[in-house]
Structure formats: structure tokens, C-alpha cells
Amino acid sequence: MAKSDQTDEKVTAQLATLSAEVEAAGLGPADLSYDSIDRVETWYGRVLAKQVKTSIATDDLATHVATYAGEVLRRKTGAKWGEETRDGATLAVVRSLPELKSYKLAPIRAVLLFRDGRKPGTIRDGIEPYDVPRRREQLAAEVKNAAAEVEALRAGVEALGRAELLPLDFSKESLDRLQAALKLSLERNPTPAIRRVLQRRAALYVGECLRRAKPDATWTLNEDPKDLAFGYGQIRGRTPQTTIANHRPARDAPTAFKDFFSKFL
Q1: In the chain, alpha helices (H)
Q2: Quick one: 258 exposed, middle or buried, by C-beta within 10 A (0-12, 13-18, 19+)?
Q3: Which residues contact 220 (CB under 8 A, 6 or more apart)?
Q4: Which end of the chain is more exposed for a tag (fewer CB within 10 A), N or C?
Q5: Vertex 79, ends 126 and 64: CA angle to 5°?
Q6: Residue 42: other Cβ atoms inside 10 A
Q7: Contact of 107 with 72, CB cutoff 8 Å
Q8: Which helix (H) or strand (E) holds 239?
Q9: Could you read off the pLDDT of 123-155 as tens digits, one per residue?
């Protein structure tokens, strides 16, 4: 990557160009919200697939998208832009993040990961966890409202119309049913936003099963930016979200969720 010169003027120009193209494609507002990162990613995916034309030079596409995603995080957290040389390349980084003062995030990493894998939701998932105060609030709200979240999960499973997927009664055996239900739901190709809700509620359910089996277990946020589970809720030192997000039905045993749970009993 060429040397970055992440001036305010350059950021503003890149945001204006990208936002106009995303909105012109009918994907909704590029309003620098976390939700809008998914919309920008959808636009980027269509450009890569040659379904949408763009005035942005091919070599500059990833940089524009990275600037947008990084600027969302910067504005939400009060962080700053900076530069860092890695592997001989000077990258634009977001620095001075709350609770992560010494850590520098290069948004281009998440963008290139999406470019190479084309997995929907990759960019936002590589950016939003670094808003630690927001993630703490989200986890606290989820745990506080666990009963309502689990009820919403049950309602979603019931809507699948498969009686064998119920009940979700916090038993170890119910984790096999949850895994089958999640597989069926994801096979319907939900949007990244819906997928996140499904996986978040599934992770909460697995953790709540463990909490009921081990009353001393409590939820905490993984705040180690070098950990793959960074930014997600953990219980007894392990993160259900990681098992659920990385689950591949064609590869993993149909008892993967239950096996995760059983390790901590």
C-alpha cells in the first residue's frame, strides 16, 4: 500500500465520494453509523463483482472503504487518525481509542479480509468491537434482558416450523437443537444485521446454560485486542460467540455447541 496521508481534507473528500456512490446505488444512507458499514460493504461487494460501476479508481477502492469504516469508529469513540508502518507499508490507523490507548487499528485489514473472502458483515465485525465502551453497554443490556432475549430466540426457532428444534429449556441436550436451528436459519441467507442478532442470541443462550449449571459463572467482556474473541462476552474465560460465529455445519460435528458447553462442567 502506498504511503498514507490521512489529512482531514483527504478523509472528507473520500467520505463524500463514497457516500454519494453508495446512496446513488439505492443502498440507503451512508450516515457514518455502524449500520452503514454494512451498506458500504454491500456496495463494495457489488463493485468487486462488477454489478455496479464506480468513479473511484480500482487501486483506491479498498482505501476509500477503509477510510469510511475507520471514520465511523473515530467519530463514535473520539479517537484520532494516525499512521503506522507495518511490513514496509505505511497504513492509516485509528489511534487513541478509549480503553485501548496504545492500540492502533488499521481498518484496511478488515476491508482486505472482506475483499478476499466476500463474507457479508466482515468489515463491521472487524471495526465495531474496538468501541469498548459501547460493547460493555451492549453486553450489560443483553445480560440484564437475558430472559427477553432468550424468549425472542425461542420465538424465532418456533417460527421455523420444526417441532424437533424445541424446547430450548437450558438443558445440555437443547444445545444440539439450538445448533440445528441456527444452521437452518443461516441457510436462508439472512442479512449481516439479522445474522448478528441470531448469533448474539445463540451465544447468550449457550452462556446462560453454563451460568445455570455453574452459578458462580459471570459474564465479562473480552478486552484483549490481540485475542480473536476481543469485544465479545465471555463466561468462565471462554467466548460462546467464537464457537457460534466460526461454526461451519459442513465441517463441525452436530454437537459442537454442546461439546463447547460440556468442557466447562
Answers
A1: 8-24, 34-48, 58-77, 108-117, 122-125, 132-144, 146-159, 174-186, 192-213, 240-245, 256-262
A2: buried
A3: 233, 234, 235
A4: C
A5: 55
A6: 19
A7: no
A8: none
A9: 999 999 999 999 999 999 999 999 999 999 999
Kindly state the DSSP code that residue 180 receives in the 8-state scheme: H
Of 117, 112, 121, the C-alpha closest to 41 is 121
180 Cβ contact list (under 8 Å, min separation 6): 164, 165, 254
Residues sharing a CB contact under 8 Å with residue 76, sequence separation 6 or more, in sequence order: 34, 131, 134
Query: 159-218: per-residue pLDDT in tens?
Result: 999 999 999 999 999 999 999 999 999 999 999 999 999 999 999 999 999 999 998 999
Tell me how far CA of residue 191 lies from CA of 6, 148, 188, in angstroms: 32, 22, 9
Q: Which residues pair with 105 in a beta bridge?
A: 94
Q: How many CB atoms lie within 10 A of CB 24?
A: 11
How many whole angstroms separate alpha carbon 69 and alpha carbon 263? Answer: 37
pTM as predicted: 0.93
Cell of 131: 468501541
Q: Which residues pair with 238 in a beta bridge?
A: 235
Instruction: Give the Cβ contact number of residue 95 at 10 Å.
Output: 17
Comparing C-alpha atoms, which of 197, 26, 34 is closest to residue 110?
Answer: 34
The grid coordinates listed for 46 are: 457489488
What's the CA gap between 201 and 255, in Å, rounded? 18
Contacts of 94 (CB under 8 A, 6+ apart): 70, 73, 74, 79, 80, 81, 82, 104, 105, 107, 130
